[in-house]
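Students often ask why we bother predicting the structure of a whole assembly rather than each chain alone. The short answer is interfaces. A chain on its own may look different once its partners are present, and contacts between molecules only exist in the joint model. In this exercise we take two input lines together and write out one structure for the complete complex. Read the inputs first and try to guess which parts will touch.
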Amino acid sequence: MLKIYNTIARDKQVFTPIVAGKVSMYVCGMTVYDYCHLGHARVMVVFDMVNRWLRTSGYDVTYVRNITDIDDKIIKRANENNETIAQLTQRFIDAMDEDSAKLGVIRPDIEPKATEFVGGMLSMIATLIDKGFAYSASNGDVYYAVNNFEGYGKLSGKSLDDLRAGERVEVDTHKKDPMDFVLWKAAKPNEPSWDSPWGKGRPGWHIECSAMSSHHLGQQFDIHGGGQDLQFPHHENEIAQSEAAHSHDGKPCQMVNYWMHNGFVRVDDEKMSKSLGNFFTIRTVLEKYDAEVVRFFILRAHYRSPLNYSDQHLDDAKQALTRLYTSLRGLPIPDAAIDWEQPQAASFKAAMDDDFNTPEAFAVLFDLANELNKTRSLDTAALLRGLAGIVGLLQREPNSYLQSSPALEVVSGNTFDVDALIVLRNEAKKAKNFAEADRIRKELAEVGIVLEDSSQGTIWRRA
RNA sequence: GGCGCGAUAGCAAAGCGGUUAUGCCGCGGCCUGCAAAGCCGUUUAGACCAGUUCGACUCUGGUUCGCGCCUCCA
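Now the answer. The structure tokens for the assembled complex follow.
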């Protein structure tokens, strides 16, 4: 029985889908004006894990993750680069796809782009005006009237009074209430724009997600996810828009049943973000670390906990993953369906069902590795690989992981003939010339290659 | 200022009102020509102060510290 921590309830709740056997899930994706950083990687990997576990649990999942391809930063960046908006966004969409594929992320079923849904946004805005939840201002903007939506603040736990008291932005005189937010922005000179009943302009950020989620998943859907920082105002505003627009006879239509928010990636205990400038892009990290190590690093912490990034932590994750792959090395592992009655499989399932407790599930993986190291049982190996596969890990040939690393490629190039040196060393060993044997081993160690002698012969791995 | 989250061993990170989390590192042993890997064993915990309880890391209250949101942000 799956339980999910529902942000809006501030509690773990038993997951019951709207339609038995089916799950509709929407996750706020990226604004594509730059390369993705590790914070984005966490969203992609975490909800990929959620998607995989739901499917493993037998649900027919429709997973939507949007792409924001029009916004201030995109316009600004395109101008700076002297390229069109379409060129810029496509470039970074391609980069994002490349990064996420490396991280083992299964593509969402639907990846709608904001610019392809302007029509839907316009009709939603019109509906909101009709129902009295929005108004067009004299400056050509259209605003949402937060006062008219009774539940405003229910997701983030904020009250309008508190929000107004903490208001740090100068009051825009075009707004009726300082907390009103923009649905449609009047076009400024040299900006891309769409025609609308309120003049040329472009959509605000929040309305994009309301329009795209309802188009693909309906007025009410099961799970909505995103980073913790989107809780307010983005998701709060989505609720206000969608529930007001879809209201019947004045009664709001509940938009989402389960709100999920993943924790931040931090650097030195501070949130990793563009504005702080303390971010590491995925591709930078992948120059040094295997993508599977990064995935393992992200999933070994609970998705709601903060996750500190540092080389030391990545090194730690690398060692741990090495232990797992080492246990599988050299075994002809059969493909076998997972027997969920099996105690370890049951523990794994219990952990995953408890709000996707991957750290606890991973502990089961290490138990299996320990057992496997003792027994060399192919059943155990199959179970370990099978369970890990559910969260997108351990699917490679062990040596593909153990004998490769971005760092090793840089150091050794393709010129190092490890096998030949192993042969030489074994001849030296046979002749009891241990000084020579150790010299060869040391030479390899210096380029990051570790030799291991066993009854099966000598094998190597990267350090 | 308002709202919220957190504080677990050298590092990372979970569960749990009483019984080994787990990984990395360290230490001892086995194995090995020596190593490595592996196995066995092992040292380090629960910020602080009260309370509830037969018993609290786990529940309650308070204190201190850290983080996040309140502005674009995954």
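Check your guess against this: The domain at 3-262 of chain A is CATH 3.40.50.620 (Rossmann fold).
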